[in-house]
Specification:
The chain is an all-alpha fold. 76% of the residues lie in helices and 1% in strands. A two-stranded antiparallel ribbon has the order 1-2. It is globular and about 60 Å long. The relative contact order is 0.17.
Length: 322
């Protein structure tokens, strides 16, 4: 059964990649790729957040710190070393993982609101460092010229769209593996009762550090293509706390207990945000996030996944016995 599910996942991933390639070949309006890039970027961020925040129960408000670091690592590599995008993403993930490990060593002994406040402080500290560091452009940021687009793509945004889809598939695959492995079982034990998990021999600190490292690496990888997407990076947008709020809200809306929950939440909320941006105003995005989060916390505290499971149980209980 486990092998069948694994094959089913990879068949689904291949189908998603095939649909993305078909869209690149047939859709002419490039705005759709600009919007889809942002939505899928949030799939990566929400999935990465859920590894620590959902599985282990450590609510992290530092998503924007890792995202911003990934963006700045990438733009420095392309500006000063002319490295290709693939190496930029790998380097950003390595730095993000190292940062996650370091931040974890300093903060994971804290719990509850104290841990959350510490992660907010990490974002503020890193943004302040970047603002006062002239080598990376300071408060004005850095601009770059995009290199020529690679075959078989006819525009850069289409290539970035395929790249972020690949990053999202890797992120979801990692989250799914963690959930179904002994690592996921250990993280869930930590979330349920950390003291009891320690007493039963679960290596709580090592598992939390591993989750923080993987989460940080994926968040930084999500931020790496931002430089090519915008053509520049600057501190105010790269370290924007909106990334942290959205990355937290999306798994809560979709459901934190299953790897598909953050994907559903990101697709739903990200699409709504893009529609609101186009039809009404970009400033209403945070309001939309807040309203949807309140609705789901009150009406469906376990997210869409939990709501579907409850409906399935109710329908099953109403069936007459054979």
């Amino acid at each position: 059964m486990s092998g069948q599910r694994t094959w089913g996942f990879w068949i689904g991933a291949a189908a998603v990649l095939g649909l993305a390639a078909l869209a690149v070949a047939t859709v002419k309006n490039e705005y759709y790729f600009f919007a889809a890039y942002v939505v899928i970027q949030f799939v990566v961020l929400a999935t990465a957040w859920n590894i620590l925040g959902g599985y282990a129960g450590y609510v992290n408000f530092g998503t924007s710190a890792f995202f911003g670091v990934g963006a700045y690592i990438a733009i420095m590599l392309v500006k000063y070393m002319a490295l290709p995008l693939g190496l930029q993403i790998l380097a950003a993930a390595a730095v993000g993982g190292a940062l996650g490990f370091g931040v974890g060593l300093l903060t994971l002994r804290l719990r509850g609101i104290f841990f959350s406040i510490a992660t907010v402080a990490v974002t503020i500290i890193l943004e302040t460092v970047v603002i006062n560091w002239r080598y990376v452009g300071g408060a004005t940021g850095i601009q770059i010229l995009r290199p020529p687009v690679m075959e078989p793509f006819d525009s850069y945004i289409k290539m970035l769209f395929i790249v972020i889809v690949l990053v999202a598939i890797v992120a979801v695959a990692i989250a799914r593996f963690i959930e179904t492995s002994w690592i996921g079982r250990g993280l869930r034990a930590i979330r349920d009762n950390e003291e009891a998990a320690e007493c039963t021999g679960v290596p709580t600190l090592r598992l939390k550090l591993l989750a923080c490292t993987i989460s940080g690496a994926l968040m930084a990888a999500a931020g790496a293509p931002l430089a090519m997407y915008q053509g520049y990076v600057e501190p105010a947008s790269s370290f924007n706390l909106t990334y942290s709020v959205s990355a937290l809200a999306m798994p809560l809306i979709g459901g934190t207990s299953h790897w598909i929950g953050p994907v559903i939440g990101a697709m739903l909320l990200g699409t709504v945000q893009q529609v609101v941006t186009v039809t009404i105003s970009n400033e209403l995005n945070v309001l939309v996030v807040g309203v949807l989060l309140v609705i789901f916390v009150v009406a469906a505290p376990e997210g869409i996944i939990g709501l579907v499971q409850k409906l399935r149980h109710r329908l099953a209980s109403r069936k007459p016995p054979p």
